[in-house]
Each structure stands twice: as C-alpha cells, then as structure tokens.
Design brief:
The complex is a heterotrimer. By secondary structure, chain A is mainly alpha-helical. Chain A is built from eleven helices and no strands. The model of chain C has no long low-confidence stretch (mean pLDDT about 90). The chains are: A mainly alpha, B mainly alpha, C alpha/beta. Chains in contact: A-B, A-C, B-C.
C-alpha cells in the first residue's frame, strides 16, 4: 500500500493540482497545434500565394466587420492570425527545444564529469561557467549573432539564422545544467552506492551515467522546464530586438515586433493576440516547472 | 578570511582576462580591422603600412598583451562607425544605464524581500497564493512585453508618462543624471519598473524559498521552543540567516539587470550602453561591442566582489576561524 | 508537574488521518528524569512536541489532556502557548551543530532568551548568562560568551544549548535524543549535567531516547512506547529488571551487553523458516571459492589530508587521518575496530578499498600487495575479493535500480555468470539465504525497511564471492532489535563461508559480541590491539579504560 502510494504520488498530486492540470492541457494543445500546423492552419504564412491583401486587417470574429473565416482576424498582409501564430509557435518551439537539447547534453556532461573528477578539471569547468555567468544570456546570444554577422557572408546569413539563433540560446543556457548537475553529482559522490560502484572497479562512464545520472534527474528536469521557458522567451526577445528571425519566417517574437507597428493604431489584435499566446505558453511551462520543483522538493510542500 | 577574499579576487582577475581575451579575439578575427578602418581608396601599401603601425603583424600574444595594457590605460580604440574614441562613447552612456539599473534593483529589493518574507511566513494565506500566482505570470511575460504594456497603458491610453528618452537631465560634472529633476524621474519610472519587475519576481521567490528552508531549521525550532519573541524570531534570526544565500544570488542577478537593460533601453529608446551595444551589433561595430563586453564584465565582477565582502561581514563563520 | 492523559495526535493526510500516537498517559514530577524509550516510529518525539506545542504541521492533538501544574496546555491561545515556551517548558535538540543560530553570539542568544521572559536589564541578564555558563561547565565564561557557536566543539555546544534551555528557569525540559550525536565521553558529561540540574534545580526532564543504556544510567522512571502506544511504564529498575510486557523483554534481549559475549541474540520471531531456497546460492558460494581464507595486514599505514588552506604563501598543515597504523587481521577471523567519531575508522576502510590514497605504508591482502588508491587498476583481484557493507542502508543501494539489478551487477561485472536468467535465479536464492523473500528482486529499495535493505546490501556483497568483508558501522542506523538480527546474520554467514571481517563500530558492546580481536583507534593511532576478551576485561591503554568506564552499562538488575 505504502509502496503503491509512493510510486503514484506524483500522479496523485498532479491530478489534484488544478493549476498544473490546466497548464499541462494548454501546453499540450499548443504543442499539438505547432506540430500539426501545416495540416490545420488555414493558410501558409510563408507562401505568398495562399493569402491575399484583400483580406488584410480584418478584426477577430467578435468585432464588427470580421470575416468568420478568420477567427482571430488577419494582419496587414491578409495573413490569418491563427495560422501565423501556429507557424510561429512551431518555429519558436523547434528553436527552443533544439537549443535546450544542446544545452542539456553539453551542460549535464560537463557537470557530471566535473562533479565526478573534481580537482583541476572541475576548477576549469567552473571558471568557464563563471565567465559565462559574467556575460548573461541575452548578451551571449547577441554577441554570437554579432559574430555571425561579421564572419558569415551575407548570402549564407539568412539561411543560417535559425542555426545561429539556436546555438546562441544553447550556449547561454548550458551553465544552468552544468552547475546543477555538478552540485548534485558532488552530493551523490559521497553516497555509499556510488562508492560501492567505484570500489568494484566500474568504469567512470558507467558510474556517471548508469548510477549517478538517474538519481539526479529530478533537479535536472526542473531546470529543463524552466529553461525551455527561458529559451522561448530568449528567442522572442532576440527576434523582437530585430536580431533573431527575419519577417518572412516569423516566430512568435517576430510577430510581436511586427505587431508593435500597430500599437498606436486601432488594429490591436495584430500585437496583442500573439503576445497573449506567447505569455500563455510560457506561463504554462513555468507552472509545470513549479509543480515539478515542489514534487522533487517535498519539504517545500 | 584574507585568503577567501584574495582567492575571490584572483578568480575575478581570471574572469576579466578571459573576457578581455574574448573581446580581443572579436576585434582581431571578426572581419579585418584594416578594411574596416580604411576606405576603398586606400592603397594596398598604405593598408600594409597601417597594419605594421598598429602592430597587427606582431605575434598574437604580444597583440593581446598590448590590447590589455591599452585598456588598463583607458585607451579603448576607435569606433568603426563613428570614428570616435570608444571610451568617450561608452562613458557618456554609463550614467543612463547605471541609474536605470540601480533604481530597478532598488524596486526589486524593496518590494521583493518583504513579499518573499510574507509569503514564507504565511504559506497558506490567500494573499500569498495570489502573490505567488502573480509572480509566476510575472516571470513568464517577456521584459519587452511588460515595457510595451506599460507604454500602452500609461503612455498611450492615459498619457501620464513619457514613453521614450531620458527627459530632463541634470549635469554634475560629466555625469548626466535624471535623478534630480521631476521630469527625469517621470521618464525613468516606466523603464525602471519594466526592468525591475522581472528581478522582483526572482528576488521574491528566492527569499521565500530560503526563508522557508531556514524556518524549518533546528535553531529556529529551538528559538521557538525557548519562547524567543516572534518578531525577533522572524527578523533577527530567520531573515538574517536567509540573507546569506540571498545576497550571493542577488550579486549574480546583477548580470540579469545588465542583460535586460539592453531590452528595456531598446523598448524605451533609453540612451544607455545597451542601446549603444544594439546599434553596434547592427553595424558590426566590433570595437564598441568588445569594449561593452569588458565594461559589463568589469561591473559584474566588481559587484560580486562587493557581495563577497558583505558575505564576510554577515557570516561570522567566514570571519572568525578558531575552535 | 506534567500530566498527560489519553493523548492522541493525528496527522491529516489525503488518505485519511494518520494516528501518530494514541492514548498516551504519562506524569513527570519536578526533579524527575522520565525516560521515554522506543524504536523508530514509536512516536516518542511526537509526545515531546505535543507537550511543548510544536507539533510539525499539519499534526494536531485530537484527544486527551496536557496539564503543566494547574495550566491546561490545550486551552492556551497561540500567544499564551508561546509565552509558556521557554518560561515553563523548554527543549533540547539532538544535534548541537544545528541548534544554535550561527550568526549570533552566545551572549546575544542568551540575553535575548532571558529578557524575553523577565524584565531583567541587559547587564543583569549578562551576569546571569555568564553565571549559567559557568554552572554548566564552561570555563572562562565571561570571555567565551562573546564567541559564536562555530567556535565551540560539539560537546561544548550542547552545553550552551542546555544553558539556553535552563536560562529561563523552566519547570520542564524536553530532551529529544540529547546525546545521540555525541561521543561516549561527552555523552556521559551531558548526562551527568542533566542529572545535576534535575536534582539541584528540581527541573523535570522528559528524556526521549532510543538508547536503553542511557535510560538505565540516568532515568528515574521510564515509559516504553511502540507504534504510538505506551507499552509499559514504571520505575526504571522495575521496567528494565522485570519487564511485564514481552515487547520490553524482547527489547532488552536485543541490547548487546558490554561485559560479556553472547553467541546469538534472542530475536522475537526466531522461528526462522527452514528453507531450501538458499541452498543454491550457498553451494555456489562454497564451491566456487578459488581462494583460501584471506587475511589482511597493514604496516605503518599513514594517511594525510590537505588541511584547509588559509594563505597563498604557506602550504596548509596536513591533517593526519591515520598515523602509522599497523594491524594484522588473521585469515577467517573478525577484527573489531572501535573509536570515536573522527578517529579515522572510515578512513581506514576507504584506504583498504582504494578510495583514499595513503602517503606511505603497505597493505597486503593474503599474499599480494594492494596498490594504493588510484594506482590500483579497475581489474585488480582485490576489487572482487574485498567487499563492503556500509553504514547507511538508505544510501548504499541505488534507489533508481531494481533490487534484482543491484544484486546481479557483481555477477556480470566480475564475469561469474554469463546467462541473465541464471543470474536472476542466483540473486533470488541469495536473498533467501540472507532471510528475505526471493520475489524482492522485482522491487525497488525504497519498498523495504532499513533492516531489509541492510540484508540486501549483505547479499550484494556476498554475490561478489568476497574473502574479505569490511562492515563499516553496519548497524548504527538501525533499531536495536533489527541490529540484533543483522548481527546474528553476519555471524552465521561468517562461520558458513569462512569470511575474514573487519568490523568497524563506535559501539563497544556491539564489537564485543562480534570480534575475535579488537583494535582501539584514536586520532588516527592504534591505542591497543588484542584478543577481544582481554581488551574488554583487562584493557592496557588508559584510553580504552576510560572508554569502557564511560559507556553506559546495563545495571545488574537487568541481567537475564
């Protein structure tokens, strides 16, 4: 009975936490929408032939003069807002998730090794992390972007924008993973199950990945959710600053930047609908992150 | 104690060297400095002579040392874009960013710490739950969106506050300050709130988590058990112990203030270093980018050294070591 | 006088209320030390917390009365209850390392507490504080009072904690495991202090502990608890000498005596089901032994650690963890190693297993020299021949691995058995050999109790076919009745398989039961080695004598 309860405690708490449930539902809907965007979107925002200027600046359906075909209205080019947002979310999530994966692999690998070997290797990794910390995320990302502009020929630049952006975000997030993984590894290095494995003469890689890693997944999972939110925010911010993605392949941030032009005009939906969408997405991810944090730190419950 | 501080200073020097190296590599390898400095009409011979004059043919390590030496002397080179000394360009922008950052940090601490304490002491209250939910939404709204919303509400709809620039400034020597005029404060308010909100939520959540941890500790339970007055228990015992880790993290947050000042300055067209940096990226103005990096890292390192000193001042375990 | 009647405390949970203690009755008179004893989960600490009104949230008193003198503690408002705390009831916690605020001087903490409950001026309060510290046995109190907690040693810190607890002249002090974190020498001083305070100041003590020796030494009356209920209560001599309840009797039987050796502990359900399931594993272990009985000899072993660095220019003075240790463990025997915390016991174990590199000396296992630390290859034979059973069964098993995976790991790692099914079969059989159900292999460690986990840990060690076993405090995290079972098991296995064992413990009584020979370690030096009976009856070293004298002994009336 006790074992059963323990095993399913996470699930139980989840079902009984309305905020986490709602957040998860939102996150899943957005994820599905993004994945299946090409099939469910009304128009393809990248394809100039699929929309028409005649449909431009239509308001959402609950306002006068709306076209019921476009539920949330259209922008000045006549693009359906819902379609733009779905494609935008798709791009934002692709960049966010790839950056996160790179950061996690790099950070967890370095953190585990630093915690396992300690000594000089640890000192070097941590000093590099210090330098990275002195140059905060947005700065790093901007810098990498600036370097890319300097080195890459203009022709390739456009094609590589997504890659550069992903790399920039990944490099600014790895430190979180490395520091968390290192701290947890240190803690577990003193645990007797790890000492037993080392004593047996098991290979360091086996000790790190088979023994330690599964035990430190909890805090890493929390970092992962929180950093996914950061990655999406970072991408949006960079695109907003006009340094991320160009207007012809809009992510959520680019959509908001375009919408800024309508801040003072009557067409508020072009700015505020993508903004709302971005906020709902990030709030959902952060609520899930918070839930996981409480789950893995029961003393804070 | 002396060893602890010396060690931290040595680490800071290392960080500064690494950043200087980064800035130097930027300058040296991203684009060719000579082609940037000269026009198309300059002959190849002239370019070569300039190259020799500037010492760009010297071994790499010499160039780096000279670069660092020049920086220490206050010589930061010239901007590719405006041909002005970078030192002057940055120096004229420092006051704007500094005042923005300090006021934002103040907002974050003055609201964040009390809110964190309150939510930790009354974890089940309705107000606590409301605050927690609000801050969760707070960390999820990108800074630029907060800026836009503030501009929209207070600037566009209500028309109470200016939405861009610094307003009236007051000169004290070379320092242009907006803290001494009402106009300046009006202009400062929205950007400072924008920048402060994100830091505020982080500070609050951090103080809350640490405070709850401390409230569960044995020494608080023991103080409870011997009837130490509640006020003293919460503030003298618990809050003081909470501040030890919180101070360290606030030092790290300074980096966040700098980073988001770039965004805030862009939204409000605030003439600070961040805006300068954005412009220099757009025009691939490498010297300005490099120097900005070094200056930022310097402030970061400085703030963290101050934090270490505070740490020593608060925690007797670092000050006195004898058993 | 504290009177507790029908006390029931519940903790609401989402699966209904969990009853922590039920119908607890107890009275403590002024000047009386009332022992509250029981194993983990008995609810002892809950009784204490309920009395002082500091039950961990969301626990609540659902029934019963708590009266101190004429005050009904249950009817007090939160503010009134907080006034009573310190003023009339105070408390002492287990760990002196964490019970004092690290950022305040002792003086500030004492003065604040005194002023909170009287209108003494600062100077009066300071005088009282200094006087108290002197009374409690802190020399040079007028100066020491200015110090911060981290400047005191563990024992001194517990004295400061006691000074704080008595600073307001309470009628009752609840002492929750006040000596568990202390070494025997300090423990005996603290117990003396508690006894003196009870006598001189007529303070009533509720002494919560799991250690029956401590109760026997200082308690006037004792209450035995089990699973939230009072089993029996009465004068210490009566309860411990002629227990009425079989549980108390069983508890007494499980306590290892210091003054003699018993062959086997009497364990409550000793009717060990005779099972043939373990035969497979037993045969595998017996037949497959490629090595004879294997001893270990250590010569001039010295381990130095770098001390804390305080300057760039001076090399920090090294901390000597093991100082010229020479020890010869005979093949097939059990060597006991006793010592206080920080004496280097665990360092020795880690040095033998290669986790720590000694600065010089030699180690010889059987007739092969053991390479030091990292220079020992991962494939060295000793990695298999030497196995270890750790202190904390909660951290010695990887909680993310199935018990089956934990047990079969040595089998494939050392290349004993190639076939996965065969490995599982052997692991299951080994589980039954150590007294567990074989179906445990499909479960995870957290599904077992501490004692069961320690059995799994023993099974894992055996599956490596070791010849030399290091047991580092294998029972100190366990309740006394579980300890008795594990000690029985280890003895049995040792005789069956001819293992050589290094048995490390801080508990002299336990070592006496287990070891053929005993070594006494202090500050990294061996003080005395000899045949166990001789060391315990005619100790040569002064240190051994004082250790033996200070260890709480069961009074003669407890002899069975």
């Amino acid at each position: 009975m006790i074992a059963f309860v323990k095993k399913n405690e996470g699930f139980w708490l989840f079902v009984h936490s309305p905020a986490a449930m709602v957040a998860a539902i939102f996150a899943v809907i957005i994820l599905l929408g993004a994945v299946f965007a090409p099939w469910i979107a009304l128009v393809n925002p990248y394809d100039l032939a699929s929309f028409s200027l005649f449909d431009g600046l239509l308001p959402p359906v609950w306002l006068d003069g709306a076209n019921p075909k476009y539920l949330l209205g259209t922008d000045d080019q006549g693009r359906d807002m819902i379609s733009s947002i779905l494609y935008g979310a798709r791009l934002s999530l692709v960049i966010g998730l790839s950056a996160l994966t790179i950061a996690a692999v790099l950070g967890v690998g370095l953190g585990l090794a630093a915690g396992y070997y300690g000594g000089r290797f640890d000192a070097i990794v941590m000093r590099i992390a210090d330098v990275q910390l002195a140059l905060p995320a947005i700065l790093t990302a901007l810098l990498i972007d600036g370097i890319a502009r300097g080195i890459l020929p203009a022709a390739i630049q456009q094609d590589l924008r997504v890659a550069v952006l992903t790399l920039a975000i990944a490099l600014s997030l790895w430190v979180n993973f490395a520091r968390t993984a290192r701290a947890s590894t240190f803690m577990h290095m003193n645990k007797e199950y790890v000492q037993a494995a080392i004593m047996m003469g098991q290979h360091p890689l086996r000790v790190m990945f088979v023994h330690i890693l599964p035990n430190i997944l909890g805090p890493l999972l929390v970092i992962m959710t929180v950093d996914l939110a950061s990655a999406i925010l970072l991408e949006a911010t960079l695109s907003f600053l006009g340094i991320g993605l160009p207007a012809d392949s809009p992510s959520l941030g680019t959509l908001i930047r375009i919408g800024m032009q309508f801040l003072l005009s009557g067409e508020w939906w072009i700015l505020w609908i993508p903004t709302m969408f971005l906020v709902v997405l990030v709030v959902s991810i952060n609520i899930l992150g918070d839930f996981l944090r409480d789950l893995f730190n029961p003393r804070l419950r | 104690m002396v060893y602890f501080i010396l060690k931290r200073m040595l680490q800071s020097v290392f960080v500064m060297m690494a950043v200087a190296f980064l800035a130097f590599s930027l300058f040296r390898f991203v684009g060719d400095p000579i082609t940037q400095m000269t026009g198309v009409e300059t002959s190849v011979e002239d370019q070569e002579r300039l190259r020799e004059e500037l010492g760009l043919n010297d071994p790499f390590i010499y160039q780096f040392l000279r670069f660092t030496g020049d920086m220490l002397k206050g010589d930061f080179g010239f901007s590719y874009r405006t041909r002005q000394p970078v030192a002057d360009m940055i120096a004229s922008r420092i006051p704007a960013t500094f005042e923005l950052g300090v006021v934002a940090l103040m907002i974050s601490l003055l609201v964040g710490v009390p809110a964190g304490v309150y939510t930790a002491l009354k974890p089940r209250g309705v107000l606590t739950q409301t605050i927690l939910m609000t801050t969760l939404v707070g960390v999820s709204i990108p800074t630029f969106v907060i800026g836009i919303m503030l501009i929209f509400i207070f600037g566009v709809q209500l028309g109470w506050l200016p939405t861009f620039g610094r307003g009236g400034t007051f000169k004290i020597g070379a320092w242009e300050s907006s803290l001494f005029t009402i106009d300046g404060w009006r202009a400062l308010l929205l950007p400072a709130i924008t920048l402060g909100v994100y830091q505020l939520t982080l500070t609050m959540r951090l103080v809350r988590a640490e405070m709850m941890e401390v409230m569960r500790s044995d020494y608080i339970r023991f103080a409870m058990a011997r009837g130490v007055p509640m006020r003293s228990l919460h503030y003298k015992h618990a809050l003081a112990n909470t501040m030890v880790p919180v101070i360290t993290i606030i030092g790290l947050q300074f980096g966040g203030v700098i980073a988001f000042s770039i965004v805030t300055e862009s939204v409000f067209q605030w003439p600070g270093m961040g805006l300068l940096f954005l412009e220099s990226i757009r025009f691939v103005d490498i010297p300005v980018m490099g120097v900005y990096l070094v200056v930022i890292a310097f402030f970061f390192v400085l703030v963290n050294l101050i934090v270490d000193l505070l740490y020593v001042a608060i925690d007797p375990r670092l000050r006195i070591r004898d058993v | 006088m504290l009177t507790i009647k029908n006390l029931t405390v519940k903790f609401p949970s989402r699966f209904g209320d969990f009853t922590a203690i039920e119908d607890v009755d107890m009275t403590i008179k002024p000047g009386e030390i009332h022992g509250l004893v029981g194993e983990s989960g008995a609810g002892k600490s809950t009784v204490g917390a309920a009395a002082i009104g500091l039950l961990q949230s969301p626990g609540y008193v659902s029934n019963g009365t708590l009266t101190l003198g004429n005050t009904d503690l249950r009817t007090l408002t939160l503010a009134q209850a907080h006034k009573v705390r310190g003023d009339r009831i105070s408390m002492i916690f287990q760990d002196p390392q964490t019970s004092l605020n690290p950022l305040m001087t002792i003086e500030d903490q004492l003065i604040e507490t005194i002023q909170a409950h009287s209108d003494a001026s600062i100077s009066t309060a300071r005088k009282r504080a200094v006087y108290l510290l002197e009374e409690i046995g802190i020399k040079n109190a007028a100066q020491r009072i200015k110090a911060y907690p981290h400047q005191f040693s563990g024992g001194m810190r517990q004295r400061v904690v006691i000074a704080l607890a008595v600073s307001t002249d309470p009628e009752l002090i609840i002492a929750d495991e006040p000596t568990t974190a202390l070494d025997v020498a300090v423990q005996s001083q603290v117990l003396d202090l508690i006894q003196r305070l009870a006598k001189e100041r007529q303070i009533a003590f509720m002494l919560i502990t799991h250690d029956i020796g401590v109760i026997a030494q200082v308690a006037d009356r004792v209450t035995v608890m089990r699973k939230g209920r009072v089993i029996e209560t009465g004068n210490t001599a009566q309860v411990l000498g002629t227990p009425k309840h079989s549980y108390t009797q069983a508890l007494m039987d499980a306590v290892p005596p210091l003054d003699r050796k018993i062959d086997r502990f009497r364990v409550p359900d000793a009717g060990d089901t005779v099972s043939t399931l373990g035969d497979f594993a037993e045969n595998w272990l017996l037949k497959g032994q490629l090595h004879d009985l294997t001893g270990l000899s250590l010569k001039n072993l010295t381990v130095r650690f770098a001390g804390p660095r305080t300057s760039f220019f001076r090399k920090p003075p090294p901390y000597i963890a093991l100082d010229d240790v020479t020890l010869n463990i005979k093949p097939g025997s059990i060597m006991g190693l006793v010592g206080e915390s920080g004496s280097g016991k665990s360092t020795l174990a880690k040095t033998i297993t290669g986790l720590i590199t000694p600065s010089h000396g030699t180690m010889t296992l059987g007739d092969t020299a053991l390479p030091f630390g990292k220079s020992r290859s991962r494939h060295h034979l000793s990695r298999q021949l030497v196995q270890m059973v750790f202190q904390d069964p909660y951290s010695s098993l990887n909680s993310r691995h199935r018990v089956g995976d934990i047990l079969t790991e040595p089998l494939w790692f050392y290349g004993f058995i190639k076939d996965a099914k065969e490995r599982e079969k052997l692991a299951a059989s080994m589980l039954s050999l150590v007294g567990m159900q074989p179906d445990a292999i499909t479960k995870y460690p957290h599904q077992f109790s501490g004692g069961q986990r320690q059995r799994i840990a023993v099974a894992r060690a055996l599956l490596a076919r070791p010849r030399f076993l290091i047991c580092d405090e294998p029972t100190s995290a366990l309740d006394v009745s579980i300890q008795a079972e594990i000690l029985n098991l280890l003895k049995e296995l040792q005789t069956k398989f001819g293992l050589t064992i290094l048995f490390i413990s801080h508990n002299l009584a336990v070592v006496r039961q287990m070891a053929d020979e005993t070594a006494v370690l202090r500050n990294g030096k061996i003080e005395e080695v000899g045949e166990t009976h001789a060391v315990y009856t005619t100790p040569k070293a002064e240190y051994t004598k004082s250790l033996l004298a200070l260890t709480p002994v069961m009074p003669t009336y407890c002899k069975i």
